[in-house]
Write a structure and sequence with these properties.
Layout lengths: L1 H14 L1 H5 L8 H5 L6 H14 L5 E11 L2 E17 L9 E10 L7 E5 L2 E5 L7 E2 L5 E3 L2 E2 L8 H4 E11 L2 E10 L8 E7 L5 E7 L5 E13 L2 E11 L6 E11 L9 H4 L5
Antiparallel strand pairs: 1-2, 1-15, 2-3, 3-4, 4-5, 5-6, 7-8, 9-10, 10-11, 11-12, 12-13, 13-14, 14-15
Amino acid sequence: MKRQIVGYLIVLALSGLAHAEDHPPISLDRDKLNSLTQEDQHAREIIRRADRVRAPDQPFRYQLTLVEHKGGRDITENQQVLDVSMRFYKPSEQVEKGDAKALVRFVSPARDKGKALLSDLDKMWYYAPDLRRPIPISRQQRLMGQVSNGDVVAADFDYSYISTLVGEEACGEKVCYKLSLQRRWPYVTYPAISYLVEKDTGFPRQADFLSADGVLIKRSYYRDYQQVLGQMRPTTIVVEDALRKDNYTTMRYSNVRLESLPESNFQKEYLLRLNG
């Protein structure tokens, strides 16, 4: 059974090979950032504020616990714990080059120890101790339940999507901006997002992830806001199946802290040393 699972992962990973390698490198520098197409500046301001609520603009690290739910029942045997290090920051007047790297280490269950994902802006690799080298994979590939590989690392919506303010609508007792997001780059996990952000706080409330033809893929709710790194941030994201609301995956964030790891930790060669 273990060999079958490993083989299945390899087939899935290789299916993402063209996705990872068939486009020129995407840069994250000041000129590139300034040249991004964005006609709706009010929408950009809203998205940027919400981005900073979801994640700080400095390198940081967190523990992510994934729990799958089917038919409203917790599938605790499928619980997964990940250790995620993020180095996402955009270029500024002080910094010419930005960075967008993430290292995801599998903590539990025990059978997954030693596995890792490495994300470098437009590319992602998977590594396991029984592989000779990291292999490219797709961000859209499902990791667990409703969660894809690309979901476990914080995305900067302003950089990844062209945003348009559609209007306003009620969010319970709050009023939310409704925004339409269309991806800028082919490597971005989802083609489009319908996004609700609280008007007075800038807090993300709901994101509908859509296919290229506008079909709902899944829906995420941002919940359990707590004071984290000097800012109220969501500590739970519930990712709901598009067809069955009682099938969902809970993403819980904990032990969030600023941590500037060395550049060497975000190289493919480093993955080979994780079990050394």
